[in-house]
Amino acid sequence: MDYGIRVNLRQVLHHLLQVLLVGMTLGMMRTVVPALAETEFGVPRGSFMLLVAFVVAFGFVKGSMNFVAGRLADRFGRKRVLLLGWLVALPVPALIYFASSWRWIVLATVLLGVNQGLTWSMTQTAKLDLTRADQRGLVIGLNEFSGYLGVAVAGVITGYAASLLGPRAGLLWFGGAVIGLATLLAWLAVHETLPWAHAEVKRHAANPSGQAFRPRYPANVSAQPGTGEMFALMSWRDRRMAALCQAGLVEKFVDALVWVFWPVYLHQQGVGLPAIGWIVGVYGFTWGGAQFFTGRLSDRVGRHLLNAWGMWICGAGVALMPLGSGAAWWSLSAAVAGLGMAMLYPNLSAAVADIAHPNWRASAIGIYRFWRDLGYGIGALGLGAAAALGGRIESAFWFVALAMLLSGAVLYHWGEETHPRLNPAH
Question: How many angstroms separate the CA atoms of 350 and 302, rounded?
């Protein structure tokens, strides 16, 4: 079988469209729902812990589904898992439309977490199956560029749709169209890529020393490791993997903050829904657009420093938001946070893929994504508690900024360069 973006361009493009639609499905919940939690869905003003409940649910469910998706994909194939993820999402727009209380929103977000964990994981894993080792940074950058472009676009569109059609009807029609189209395309246009992964394993077995640059795979791992062995390897046994997983977990604190408290904070400052969509969209557009370059850059200069500095720059962007006022200042803060996220987001995943053997790469990515997206839940609890204890929403910003600073330091000291060309195994 042939590997590379060019020779598999049609399927790579299909998966980029899939992840764009995955991002749009997530993005429809990012502007309207939190901003109108009080007026539309009955969340009392100042109830920070109740407000973050839907993101907590999303984080724990999506993290678990990432773990499950990796194991299922290695056993049953990528396409089946992708289709299952879209089928789970079909009721989400209707649940939002008919929601009589915040509990309905939490239930819809649980289903959204299942959808995101299964579908986003598969778009990434499938493209890694099809491409070469020297294209991993690029392909993950493209994947996350497309996904978070979808998040940003959906945030803007739903802001206008809510103003024109009403929040419930706007989300119903937008969500129904996106999820329906994605399900149809996954069924008709996407091919199974598991045979490429199997062929790569056979090629490694036949000529283990034939690679120009050998990755630094973890030592003493079974040929077909079980779930317990994989979880231990990723979570604490291999220090590099543990450093990457903790960084992935903490960087999701930023996304939880952007999802829950940025719209609420801006709404309290008197900003309207379309303008909130654009300011939050600056974060998404910068993150999405810059990943197109940062993923490719890491294939040339390495992952490690981009990841560590990305953590620190992103945290600085978060800290800037409450230090000033006005659309220009808030947009600048969003852009700095988005740039830092673009530096780290695709390259944490690429670093995991660098040192994960093709026998268990999907499982390794699934466990990394489990820890990473668990950060939604842990981060939402943390920032809700920080806001409640501090008595003001700004306290959540300081909590997240400090967490990013410390996590970046851990990643810098525990991690190492994983690119096989820049730091090959001897």
Answer: 10
Crossing angle of the two packed helices 361-390 and 53-76, in degrees rounded to 10: 180
Please report the pLDDT score of residue 40 as a whole number. 74
Instruction: Give 205's pLDDT tier (boundaries 50, 70, 90).
Output: low
| The three-state (H, E, C) secondary structure of the chain, written as one string | CCCCCCCCHHHHHHHHHHHHHHHHHHHCCCCHHHHCCCCCCCCCCCCHHHHCHHHHHHHHHHHHHHHHHHHHHHHHCHHHHHHHHHHHHCCHHHHHHCCCCHHHHHHHHHHHHHHHHHHHHHHHHHHHHHCCHHHHHHHHHHHHHHHHHHHHHHHHHHHHHHHHHCHHHHHHHHHHHHHHHHHHHHHHCCCCCHHHHHHHHHHHHHCCCCCCCCCCCCCCCCCCCCHHHHHHHHHHHCHHHHHHHHHHHHHHHHHHHHHHHHHHHHHHCCCCHHHHHHHHHHHHHHHHHHHHHHHHHHHHHCCHHHHHHHHHHHHHHHHHHHHCCCHHHHHHHHHHHHHHHHHHHHHHHHHHHHCCCCCCHHHHHHHHHHHHHHHHHHHHHHHHHHHHHHCCCHHHHHHHHHHHHHHHHHHHHHCCCCCCCCCCCC
* Mean pLDDT for the stretch of residues 76-88: 93
First-to-last C-alpha distance (Å) of the chain: 28
pLDDT in tens, 238-264: 999 999 999 999 999 999 999 888 988
pLDDT of 210 reads 52
Report the share of the chain in percent with pLDDT over 70. 95
- Which amino acid does the sequence have at 235? S
